[in-house]
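Thread: DUF1440 domain-containing protein, structure

OP (GT): Posting the sequence first so everyone is looking at the same thing. Length is 153 residues per the record. Can we get the structure tokens written out before standup tomorrow? I want them in the notebook alongside the other entries.
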Amino acid sequence: MNGLRLLGAVAGGMTAGICITALLVAGERKSGRPSELADLERAAEARLGLRVRDHGALPGPGEQAVIQGGHLLLSVAAGATYAAVTDEDSGVLSSGILFGLSFYAAMHWIVGPLLGVKKPEWQADPATIGMHTANHLLFGLATAAGARLFSRR
């Protein structure tokens, strides 16, 4: 595996993760309600028997650091996975779209519900499914573009 391509995929994934994190935090501030990531983190804590929080309260700085730090680590891991599972000659559009949709399906349709930290995606409303799909498509495209950009150096 090309080290620069790996670095680019990680950078692309992290950049997309940062953008999505910014949107989620802005949404919290605008709505006064915790983001979906905060709900996931709190559900995971409850499943593990850890401290119980007021699920309606906005996350404080420490909790926000854990939530967003975990989200960015997942973005980095996904970027590295992209570099490992795709060919260096893969097209940015085709591989980015396929990877983004695969990552979305894995996390929202399979892993989250199996872990018991989120309701199955098929129970979500169409607007939520559309938003998740768009976010993950953009994530996949940013990851693929980062991999391609860095591999050309």
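GT: Both are above now. Quick notes for whoever picks this up: The longest helix spans residues 3-31. Residues 86 and 95 are 7 Å apart (CA to CA).
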